[in-house]
Amino acid sequence: MIPIPPPVERPDPPDSGDERTLLDAWLDFHRATLLHKCSGLGEDQLRQRSVPPSSLSLLGLVRHLTEVERGWFRRGVLGEEVEPIHYSEADPDGDFDNVDDADVEADIALYRETVVGIRADIAGRDLDETFTRRDRTISLRWVYGHMIEEYARHNGHADLLRERIDGVTGE
């Protein structure tokens, strides 16, 4: 079994700094935490739905958070026309449900590429910059808060999934 992905560096966010520095650091910490929860596992383990009856798997979380990153940052903040990759209107839970035949390495690589691209494309943007979604005006600052919350929640799920897969707990 070849572990995918390899161990990841997960630096602690600083204890102080300007708002943008702290938001970037906390979001990056949670992004790295997701990959940390996946590191050292093989493809079958990453696909494993280890907390029945839930369809959640670590790979499903990676695929879901790829979509969430693209949705809030690409479609929302950057105003790009990007279609979903892992789900559709006809298959709204495809990011979670369709992992059995998924290309694990490609999905993790896409997640990493998505994060790197988004980091670069939003760097230096004003936190007060807004966009409209469903008749709501949303700021980049709000998106950061939401993304940190989204990752924190799903990283809690990842903790439970990982513990059921191989007993690894903690950090």
Into which percent range does the helicity of residues fall?
55-70%
Strand content: under 5%
Tell me what the CATH architecture is: Up-down Bundle
Low-pLDDT segments: none
Strand order, sheet with most strands: 1-2
Summarize the entry for a quick read.
By secondary structure, the protein is mostly helical. The chain contains 6 helices and 2 strands; from the N terminus they run H-H-H-H-H-E-E-H. Helix content is 56%, strand content 5%.
Folded structure, characterized:
The chain is mainly α. The protein has one domain (19-166): dinb family like domain (Four Helix Bundle (Hemerythrin (Met), subunit A)), CATH 1.20.120. The mean pLDDT is 94. The chain has six helices and two strands; from the N terminus they run αααααββα. It is globular.
List the helices and strands and how they pair.
Elements: H1 19-38, H2 43-47, H3 58-77, H4 94-97, H5 104-122, E1 130-133, E2 136-139, H6 140-166
Antiparallel strand pairs: 1-2
Helix pairs in contact: 1-3, 1-6, 3-5, 3-6
Features of the shown structure:
171 residues; mainly alpha; 6 helices; 2 strands; 5% strand
